[in-house]
Structures are given as C-alpha cells and as structure tokens.
Amino acid sequence: MTLDQLPPLRETLAEHDLLAKKSFGQHFLLDLNITRKIARLAEVGAGDHVIEVGPGPGGLTRALLETGARVTAVEADPRFAPLLEELSVASGGALTVRLEDALKTDEAAVAAGAPAHIVSNLPYNVGTPLLIKWLTGAFTPASMTLMFQKEVADRVAAEPGSEAYGRLSVIAQATSHTAVVMDVPARAFTPPPKVASAVARLTPRADRPASERLDALQRVTAAAFGQRRKMLRSSLKVLGGAELCEAAGIAPEARAETIDIPGFLALADALIAT
Questions:
Q1: Considering the entire predicted model, what is its pTM?
Q2: How far apart are CA 159 and CA 149, in angstroms?
Q3: Where would I find the H helices in the chain?
Q4: How many alpha carbons lie under 13 Å from residue 62 in its C-beta half-sphere?
Q5: d(CA 128, CA 244)
Q6: Using CA atoms, how far apart are residues 22 and 33, in angstroms rounded to an integer?
Q7: Chain centroid to CA 170: how far?
Q8: At what angle do helices 59-66 and 32-42 cross, to 10 degrees?
Q9: How many whole angstroms separate alpha carbon 237 and alpha carbon 235?
Q10: To the nearest whole number, what is the mean pLDDT of the chain?
C-alpha cells in the first residue's frame, strides 16, 4: 500500500476504535486540505528532514510525507503506534516514529548534525513549553511551522504595547522572524476545541543572541513580565532595578509591555555587565 492508497483518516480511527484523549490535549486535524496547506506554508520538500510532535493518527504526517520530506514523528501516546507504523510502511520508510515525551526528546540527536524543520499541530497542554525549549535550547530548528491555540500564536508575533505582548513575544522575536500565517477554526478539528487555532511560522534570525545573552534575556523578561503592571524599577528590583534600567538606557518608570526587543536586549546586556 502506498500513501495515496491509504483509507481516509476517519475510517482508520474507527477501525482502531481511537478517540482523542483530553489528558494529552489531543484534537485531531483530519482535513487533508488544511494539513496540505500547512505543509506548503512550512516550505519543506524532497530531501528535507521534518520533526513532527504529536502526530496522533497522522493527518499532518501524511501531508508532510506527500512533499517528499523525511519525517521523524514524536508521539507520547502509544495507542497511535499501529497507525503510524502503517503510515511508515506506506511511505517506504520515509517516516520514523519515536514513542516518547517531546519535552524530553533530544532534537539535536534526532537531527544528527543536519538541518531539521519542526512542523506540528502541537498538543495544547505542552505547546508553549515546547516552543520555549526550541527557542532557547542547544538545538536550533531550520524553521518552525506550528499550530497553537490562537491566543498563543498571537503572543508569538505580538508587538510592544499590545495586550498579547509578553515574555513569549520577546524571546520568540529576539531569536526568530515570526508571523501568524494561517487561522484554523475550531470546527476543523475532531473533537472541536473550545478555542480557535492559528499557525505561526518562525525562522532563525542571523543575529540570534548567543547563549549567555539569551540566558540573561530570559531572566530579565521573567522578572519584568512577572509583574508587568509595575514600573521596571520595581519589577526588575532583584536584578538591579533603576540602576539596571539606566545602564541599558531605559526609563525606570517604563512598564514591560512598552519595551521593544532591542530594549530588552539592552537590559540583558546590562545584566551581563553587572
């Protein structure tokens, strides 16, 4: 059996008597028109290596394999192992399945020193921790095309002064070029979630902060947005308060949501210099 001979996903799920588990944050994306559009937005194709987290029954996996990409699927729910194995056989071995918790996956080992893209319909309950891991860890993806709850996707690309702007916005935009590239309504999923979803695309910046600067940026943003309604001289008190702000050329009376990415990087540099 080849990829184009596989039965529809709904039939496959019914045959294996599988339902989404709330404990895994699962919402299946079974519409191949949508999954194929995500694969196109990811700009992957023959010769590319894609890491997919939370493939579930393999809707997005099928679309990625159709591009000719080689896919490593990381799935924590062992119920899907038989379905994914069938998909691996149909793909001629282009799909490798790892049954493990993605938060513990060593993506650098999976990539084996070569570039790898991450494309995923992320489980809602681990989407943000996984993104922070990929943005700040030792492994830097060649690109990330990720579906989140819409409010999370909006935070990734939010601008200073907006309600969605926060710590995730700063870390994402300091390390990557970010954009929300697709909205996906709740009705597209089985079962439908209570919120809308969106796809964000991130590609690494050429001036991505080095590890020491990135560590300092995480400390500064954690403190600043941990008390975002306070002036920076108060929220950053444990890191130097007003003196730190003045060293970075930032007004101590400013609040976190008004500071742009260069401003936060200046605060990180001032912290390193202390």
A1: 0.91
A2: 18
A3: 9-15, 32-42, 59-66, 81-90, 107-111, 127-136, 150-157, 167-175, 211-226, 232-235, 241-248, 261-273
A4: 25
A5: 29
A6: 25
A7: 14
A8: 50
A9: 6
A10: 92
| CB count in 10 Å sphere of residue 22 | 11
| Tokens describing residue 166 | 């926060």
Half-sphere exposure of 186 (CA within 13 A, CB side): 8
Distances (CA, A) of 30 to 6, 68, 70, 148: 13, 20, 21, 16
**What is the three-class DSSP state of 180?**
strand
Token duo for residue 142: 């060649």
Crossing angle (nearest 10°) for helices 167-175 and 261-273 = 90
Beta carbons within 10 angstroms of residue 20's beta carbon: 18
Contact predicate 176/135, CB 8 Å: yes
**Cα separation, 110 vs 118, whole angstroms:** 12
How far apart, in Å, are the Cα atoms of 243 and each of 97, 99, 213, 220, 270? Answer: 51, 49, 19, 14, 9
Read off the pLDDT of residues 120-150 as tens digits, 9 standing for 90 and up: 998 878 899 999 999 999 899 999 999 999 9
Structure token pair of residue 244: 């730190």
CA-wise closest residue to 174 among 141, 116, 217, 131? 217
pLDDT tens sequence across 243-262: 999 999 999 999 999 999 99
**CA 36 to chain centroid:** 18
